[in-house]
Amino acid sequence: MTKSYSVRGGTYHPMPVDEAIYHVESGTASWYDESSFFGLKRGQTSLGEKVMPWHLIAAHKTLPLPCMVQVTNLQNGKSVKCRVNDRGPFIGDRIIDLSPRAAKKIGFRDEGLAEVEVKVLSVGDGSYKRTAKKKWFFGLF
């Protein structure tokens, strides 16, 4: 999904796949919970996928959906790979929302916010999946 969309008075333009596969950014992450387990209530993402508490997923405003990212907590160095399959966060200057399990894995669930680095690993699924090719450095490797 790379179509523009509007939320809460803002219009967002997802980046093209060729730009997204090399995307790296740093900023504030938060976590959100769109599901519950014992109550059997399940949330749904922008892609219409069901959400359960054990999923390692994330929401981003401008990355193409779906994509895989590596999120690293800059305070403790812990990282997690997440599937970006939803839009958000739409609060302040936050760059990514993680599922509760992903936030716990990198050590900020109790705090609520963390400074992170987000690096795109691949964009798309199945036969549409694209990964970043390694950039050559002066032809040495």
TrEMBL record:
<dbReference type="InterPro" id="IPR009009">
    <property type="entry name" value="RlpA-like_DPBB"/>
</dbReference>
<comment type="function">
    <text>Lytic transglycosylase with a strong preference for naked glycan strands that lack stem peptides.</text>
</comment>
<dbReference type="InterPro" id="IPR036908">
    <property type="entry name" value="RlpA-like_sf"/>
</dbReference>
<dbReference type="GO" id="GO:0071555">
    <property type="term" value="P:cell wall organization"/>
</dbReference>
<dbReference type="Pfam" id="PF03330">
    <property type="entry name" value="DPBB_1"/>
</dbReference>
<dbReference type="GO" id="GO:0000270">
    <property type="term" value="P:peptidoglycan metabolic process"/>
</dbReference>
<feature type="domain" description="RlpA-like protein double-psi beta-barrel">
    <location>
        <begin position="25"/>
        <end position="117"/>
    </location>
</feature>
<keyword id="KW-0961">Cell wall biogenesis/degradation</keyword>
<keyword id="KW-0456">Lyase</keyword>
<dbReference type="InterPro" id="IPR012997">
    <property type="entry name" value="RplA"/>
</dbReference>
<protein>
    <recommendedName>
        <fullName>Probable endolytic peptidoglycan transglycosylase RlpA</fullName>
        <ecNumber>4.2.2.-</ecNumber>
    </recommendedName>
</protein>
<comment type="similarity">
    <text>Belongs to the RlpA family.</text>
</comment>
<dbReference type="InterPro" id="IPR034718">
    <property type="entry name" value="RlpA"/>
</dbReference>
<dbReference type="GO" id="GO:0008932">
    <property type="term" value="F:lytic endotransglycosylase activity"/>
</dbReference>
